[in-house]
Write a structure and sequence with these properties.
The chain is α/β, with parallel strands linked by helices. It folds into 2 domains: 173 residues, Quinone Oxidoreductase, Chain A, domain 1 (Alpha-Beta Complex); 135 residues, NAD(P)-binding Rossmann-like Domain (Rossmann fold), CATH 3.40.50.720. The protein is built from 11 helices and 17 strands. The strands form 4 sheets. Strands 3, 4, 5, 8, 9, 16 and 17 form a 7-stranded mixed beta sheet that branches. The chain has a 6-stranded parallel beta sheet with strand order 12-11-10-13-14-15, with helices on both faces. Helix 8 links the parallel strand 13 and strand 14. The radius of gyration is 20 Å and the shape is globular.
Amino acid sequence: MRAAAFTDLTGPDGVAIVKQQTPSPGPGEARIDVDACSINHHDLWILDGASAMIDPTDLPFVSGLDVAGVVDAVGDGVTGVESGDRVVLCPNLTCGSCRFCREGPENLCASYALYHGGLAEDARVEADRLIHLPDGVATTTAAALPTAYLTAYHMLRRAALEPGDLLFVPGATGGVGVAAVQLADVMGVRSIGTSSAASKLESLTDLGADHTIEGTDPDHLRDAVREVGTPDAVINHLGGAYTGLGLDVLRRGGRMVVCGRTAGPTSELDIGHLFRTHKRVIGSTMGTQADLERLVGLVADGDLDPRIDRAYPLDETADAFAAMRDRETLGKLVVTP
């Protein structure tokens, strides 16, 4: 089989198309004929050498979490899926035995990790992590869901939002930001989204944002958000200076859910302001398999149409990562082997 492997941790130039042995599924596993695999900043951090997860001794490395396609073969003991089934993979890897796996939610697992290997023509996966796709849900559409939309959905649940609430999403034109805006609209939650590019704001409105703001400077955004209203919650996938911004604009007792650090790994907080105003900062990573099943259901029911900016053939995987790094896109980028 062919795979888009990371052969150097030097950015998009480090992607090469290589030939690898087609995997055979072992007990409890399935092999997927991959129709589509979306890419994420998680993959780009690895490719840029900014992740401690792998080092040059692990190369070549095939990344790709968000796999959708058709079951091609199954190993011994597999009963939930069979050859010919159209599926999407929940990329959670959990131990299944720790307290958090027993009591839930599973993304609190003490040994939590993520699947990699979807940027290839075939992928070997844990069969019990596969979710059946209803008729009418395309595999390319499904591949947009597992990381960005799953993360945003779980964050919105943790923010305890209700219809009519106001949500602030700084950096709303990336994968998680777009997903948060769309899902907020599905929930009847009003949203404020920001973008550094004025050209993207109209598209953001079309996706469901009630208010849009151009800019990246926290001081400018703080004033602009306050002109709109006082958010009940903030979806923060940026970190850095945007954490203080989010806390500043929140209403008393508001919730900020944090899942990323693309704008910086550390943030400065006014602790006095935090406890005097009873605001909450909530960490969140990915979501649960049940969350992903609900998202597939929203797509099947016509309530959610994940935004896919562009699909790339396997040979152009490096171009997809270059577009992500250069922030040329709005929504998900999908590789179609």
